[in-house]
Amino acid sequence: MSEWSVAEPKKLTFDEPVTALHVRVASGTVNVVGVDEGSAHLEVTSIEGAPLTVTQKNGTLTVAYEDLVWKDFLKWLDLKGWRRSAVISLAVPVGTRVEVGVVSATAMISGIDGRTVVKGVSGDTTLVGLSGPVRADTVSGNVEAQALTGDLRLNSVSGDLTVIDGSSPSVRVDSVSGSLIVDLDPAGRASDISLTSISGEIAVRLPHPADAEVSVDSASGPVSSAFEDLRVRGQWGAKKITGRLGAGNGRLKATTVSGSIALLRRPPAEDEPWDDAVPKDAVPGGVSGADSATSPDSGGPTHQKGL
């Protein structure tokens, strides 16, 4: 096993193959990028407080504080002991399995084909162009996932979760009070999407034409839909949006207790603005879809203006 102690800005190159990467830091910044060829590289551009320990053993590269243990993730909530900061960048082979844990540090991971797991407390996380399965857990930090093609699982307590140009075959997003925003790639395949929140708002932008069986439930929050083929039911208390879009090959299920739910329609052309294809009431926190539909009791399809 090779080992280094990094207490000042430093660059390291690892000639031995790297198949797994483990990173655990407190505050600062973590950047991980996948590269097609060449050796793995580490650059520490700034570090304050305790030194980082870097080890390489049996294909696993670890960059971490020794007392920041992956299995004790919940103990990271006690931030008093983490008065340390580091800004690090890593380039690893695209097929590397990546695990990143941060307390308040921001993390950005891009271009990885292997499995990616991120755990955070209050730091924000950005995931771009990942094709392997992804899981991210956060307490209050925000997570943004862009152009992901592998299975995706996001969990949050109060942080906002955003999926942009998503084409993952399976998407599971859960939050207590954070907002959930999911924007699906029109060129992507049909997806199995499940979104759950207690009080956070949920907004889903679907391609037009869309291809999914839709089931939306809110116990007390408003709901709205920009699709004529979907039915909005309920005026007081529980509200539902149900129906089939296209052939119904995909599945969209969204559930909330008191948060609002909006189903938005992506414009046919990318250069068209969102507002041209989305009625004013089809936004989280706006007028419920039941108010803009035909009589909820009739069970008829909604008729929105501006579609």
Automatic annotation (TrEMBL):
Pfam families xrefs: DUF4097
Ranges for domain DUF4097: 21-263
Classification via InterPro entries: Toastrack_DUF4097
Region (Disordered): 264-307
Tree of life domain: Bacteria
Name of this chain's protein: DUF4097 domain-containing protein
